[in-house]
Every structure is written in structure tokens, then in C-alpha cells.
Design brief:
- This protein has 488 residues and is an alpha/beta fold.
- The chain has 3 domains: 7-194, Lambda Exonuclease, Chain A, CATH 3.90.320; 234-274, no CATH class; 276-488, 2-Layer Sandwich (Nucleotidyltransferase, domain 5), CATH 3.30.420.
- 44% of the residues lie in helices and 16% in strands.
- The protein contains 17 helices and 14 strands.
- It has helices at residues 9-17, 19-27, 36-54, 68-80, 122-137, 172-194, 215-222, 237-245, 262-273, 280-287, 347-357, 369-382, 387-395, 401-407, 419-426, 441-452, 458-487, and strands at 7-8, 60-61, 85-92, 95-104, 109-114, 142-150, 166-170, 277-278, 294-302, 318-327, 333-339, 363-366, 397-399, 408-409.
- The strands form 3 sheets. Strands 1, 2, 3, 4, 5, 6 and 7 form a 7-stranded mixed beta sheet that branches. Strands 11-10-9-12-13 form a 5-stranded mixed beta sheet, sandwiched between helices.
- It is globular and about 80 Å long.
Length: 488
């Protein structure tokens, strides 16, 4: 008789993303490696859950994290009083679930899953379907099932008042359609656990919808693989899938006539020969109209799921830092920067410093310029008195990315046109490998959030400030290096 493996809702959801994730979770848990980004996401989820519970002051939170039977008993006692129950515990067929909110109705219950996302996603519905299946089989009458997610239109009034932050999305119809599938999910998950480690290769599923904490293990298992995998072709999913189905793994092995776009042909040729593709004349023509003084600008922003500043919305990207290297016709370069770690909303100070610091610049150059342009326009909409100068700045923003994409490629870029891929290839002395802790945009957001937290010691705040300034400055100075190397 096959063992009836105990399951939880989260394990079933992991299985649906990748059966190997579930298998490793149970059989090789020590291989799990949760990144700082994963841990930060968990903390946000817990914070949103806490806010959801504040709407029901008479509700009761079910504790007993290490004793599920005690949690079930506490749940039954609370539900008998017909009051809201948080983290209620239920079990059926050795599948255990904890529900975020159980809200009493006259003769039934409303179950709500709280999510820190701004909209309902498919995996949320799978989550709710597993939960509802267990509840109904445990004899609980559920008359309403919802996903309680963040309302992106909410504007924080301040003072810790988050009423209206969360909104319910009705999910009864979707859950009803999914309920017949839950039994099959459970059976398939248990079959996976009873067998050998699944031989599933790494792919898109490793990060969709969640980043799997076992990627380090799977990477070691896979070995080095192809030095230049066909997957590196940007936005080439259909071609990549076809090439893989034909047995191609390394891009260097693929015939040149299989490349379907000029971009792919440039990438393929540079990868196969090892000789970078450089069109300096073309790059010079593309940038010949860029007037001096030129400002090479990079912003860092943060968007809290739960807004902390009055007048801001969930996920609204607020600029807290910028770095700008201003180049003059004679080649002289001036560095200007802004960083606010006071803990106050940095948007106003950012806008004022930007208008003052970039005064006189005739062209602003950015990598993925749409981001910088939108930030300026957002600041202009927020601060009417600065609207005119901010919009003037936005009008002279140009994008370095398409120039690089059209006129340069080095195989060490591995198909990426991010500034972090371009710089080491085109200007090796500008390396992100020498940075410490703050090495990308997500790390900058984490560093900023830590720096403004009241509990952060002053010494740590000074350290984070230094690292943030160094990281952002490398982005803007690096763009000058890219522009110069492309044209000279």
C-alpha cells in the first residue's frame, strides 16, 4: 500500500509549480537556500496579513504552530462562538490547511485568502481551491470564497490608517471549477513523493510564479551546461524551443541561417567567432545629435506594497536616490547625486535637487530611458510648482539602450543588454563584481528599507549609505564609459 504522505496547502502549490520542488522540500530540506529577496517577500506577506486582521477587533488568532491537533481544537472552539477566526486550522485526508480569514455569516462561512499582490493570479486561485476543498470535506459550509488583495488605488491617509488597503475579489466560480481537480493534485503529489527524485531540468518554472529555493541545488546537479546556451537569444522563445527540440543546446552549434532577425544574427556571429560586434560609425551617427552638456542619469526607486508615507499608493515607485555624471564638450565630467535616508518621503527633495542639479543640461541620457522619463513625469504630476522644469527635463531624455543594441554585442553579455552585462564587456574596469552587498536594484531597495528603519544602528546606516552611493554612481559613470567606447 502506497504511503499517504501528509501534505499542506503550500506543498501542493509548490508541487503545481514544479514536482521536484515538493520532492526536495520533503526529502532534501537541507538543500533549501532562501535568498534575502524571498525572506523580504515573506515579511511583506506577514505584514499584510496583520493589517487584514485589524479590521476584526473581536477576531481570534489560532496559535499552536507546532501542534496541529491543538490548532484544530482551538479553531473549533473559536468557530463555535461565531467570531472571525484567523489562521484557522483544518484537515482532511491528511491534507492540512491554515486559512487567513474565516468570517462568520448567518449559517455559513466566508473564507478569504489574503495576498500581498495587487491583483488575483492563477496560483492564488489554486491556493484557495485546495483550502476550500479541505474545508468542505471537513464539514464546513463555505458560502463565499474570495482573494483579499491589495487595492492599488488606495491612497494612504497617514496615521497608521490602512482601512481600504485591501479589497475582495470574488472567486466562487473559479474555485468551483477547480475543486474537481484538487483530488488529482493531491494524488499526483503523493505519487511524486513516493518515487525517486524527479529528473526535471531547470527552466522558466524555476521562477514562475515564485523563485524556487532549491535552484542552487539544481544548478549544481546540472553541472556547467553549455557555455552559450541557445536560451540567451533575447525574446526568442519560439525559436529557442524549436532549436532545443532539435537537440541544439549551445548557440555556437546552430547554423547561421537559422537566425531569424538581425539582432539574433549579430549575437550568433559574435558568440561563434568570439569577436565582438562593434559598429562605431553607426553608434556615432546615432549619438551625433546628443547635445552638450550631457547628463548621464540613473534613479533608484522603491514601491512599498504597504505605503508608509501619507498621500502615496501601494507599489507606487518613489525615487529615493539618483546619480548623475555631467559631461561637457571638452570631456570634463562633474558628478552630482542625491540620496535621502531620513525616513521621510524623499520625493520632494529628490525633485528639487534634480531640477537644480541638472539645470543647464541640454540632453539627459539613460539606460532604459522610459523609466527615468516616467519618474520625472510622476514627480511633475505630484508637485505642480515644479511641473514645468521637470517636464522640460523629461523632454530631453534619450535612451542609450537601443544604440548599444543596434551597434554592439560581446558574447560575454550572454544575450543581456542590461548595463551590468554591457559594462564588464565594453569597459572592463567598471565591474559590479567589486561591489559589496548593494549590487543590483533589488539589493538597493533592501538596503534603503533597512537604512530608514528606526531600529537600524547609526553605524549600519552609514555603511549602507556608502554602499548605495557607490552602486548608483557606477551606473551613471558606466554609461559615459559605454558611450565613449562605442564611438572612439
Amino acid at each position: 500500500m502506497r504511503r499517504q504522505w501528509p501534505l499542506t496547502k503550500s506543498k501542493i502549490i509548490s508541487f503545481l509549480q514544479c514536482p521536484k520542488w515538493l520532492w526536495l522540500e520533503v526529502h532534501k530540506p537541507n538543500e533549501k537556500d532562501e535568498t534575502e529577496e524571498m525572506q523580504a517577500r515573506f515579511l511583506v506577506g506577514h505584514h499584510v496579513g496583520d493589517i487584514a486582521r485589524t479590521q476584526y477587533p473581536k477576531g481570534v488568532l489560532i496559535e499552536h504552530p507546532d501542534n496541529f491537533n491543538a490548532a484544530i481544537a482551538a479553531t473549533q472552539a473559536a468557530m463555535s462562538s461565531r467570531i472571525p477566526v484567523f489562521e484557522a486550522a483544518f484537515q482532511h485526508d491528511n491534507v492540512r490547511v491554515r486559512t487567513d480569514l474565516m468570517l462568520p455569516k448567518p449559517r455559513s462561512w466566508h473564507t478569504a485568502e489574503v495576498k500581498s499582490a495587487g491583483e488575483v493570479k492563477d496560483h492564488h486561485l489554486n491556493d484557495l481551491a485546495v483550502q476550500t476543498s479541505v474545508l468542505k470535506n471537513a464539514g464546513i459550509r463555505v458560502s463565499r470564497s474570495t482573494i483579499r488583495h491589495i487595492n492599488k488605488q488606495f491612497v494612504y491617509p497617514g496615521g497608521g490608517n490602512y482601512r481600504g488597503l485591501l479589497t475582495d475579489a470574488e472567486a466562487d466560480r473559479e474555485v468551483k471549477e477547480l475543486l474537481p481537480e484538487v483530488r488529482g493534485w493531491v494524488a499526483a503529489a503523493r505519487k511524486t513523493l513516493s518515487g525517486r527524485e524527479p529528473g526535471i531540468e531547470m527552466g522558466k518554472h524555476c521562477n514562475d510564479p515564485w523563485a524556487c529555493p532549491f535552484q542552487g541545488y539544481c544548478t549544481k546537479l546540472a553541472g556547467t551546461g553549455a557555455a552559450y546556451p541557445v536560451d540567451l537569444l533575447p525574446r526568442g522563445r519560439s525559436l529557442v524551443e524549436k532549436l532545443k527540440s532539435e537537440g541544439y543546446d549551445d548557440l555556437r552549434e546552430v547554423p547561421a541561417d537559422r537566425m531569424t532577425t538581425d539582432l539574433f544574427r549579430r549575437i550568433h556571429a559574435a558568440t561563434k567567432t568570439g569577436k565582438p560586434y562593434v559598429d562605431r560609425e553607426g553608434a556615432h551617427r546615432a549619438m551625433s545629435s546628443w547635445k552638450y552638456p550631457r547628463a548621464y542619469l540613473d534613479f533608484e526607486t522603491i514601491g512599498f506594497a504597504v505605503p508608509i508615507w501619507e498621500g502615496t499608493r501601494p507599489f507606487q515607485q518613489i525615487p529615493f536616490q539618483w546619480s548623475c555624471h555631467i559631461e561637457r564638450p571638452d570631456g570634463a565630467v562633474t558628478h552630482r547625486e542625491f540620496l535621502d535616508l531620513s525616513g521621510n518621503n524623499p520625493a520632494r527633495a529628490c525633485a528639487e535637487k534634480l531640477v537644480k542639479g541638472l539645470r543647464g543640461c541640454r540632453m539627459i541620457i539613460a539606460h532604459h530611458a522610459g523609466v527615468e522619463r516616467n519618474i520625472m513625469r510622476g514627480l511633475a504630476a505630484t508637485f505642480p510648482d515644479l511641473r514645468a522644469p521637470l517636464l522640460r527635463l523629461a523632454e530631453v531624455v534619450v535612451d542609450l539602450l537601443p544604440v548599444v543594441k543596434e551597434h554592439y554585442y560581446h558574447r560575454d553579455m550572454l544575450g543581456s543588454y542590461s548595463i551590468k552585462a554591457i559594462l564588464p564587456a565594453l569597459a572592463p574596469r567598471f565591474s559590479y563584481d567589486n561591489l559589496d552587498e548593494v549590487t543590483d536594484g533589488l539589493a538597493a531597495q533592501r538596503a534603503y528599507a533597512e537604512a530608514i528603519h528606526p531600529a537600524t544602528p547609526d553605524s549600519r546606516k552609514v555603511e549602507l549609505e556608502r554602499k548605495l552611493r557607490r552602486y548608483c554612481a557606477l551606473d551613471s559613470e558606466g554609461m559615459i564609459a559605454v558611450a565613449r567606447r562605442l564611438t572612439k
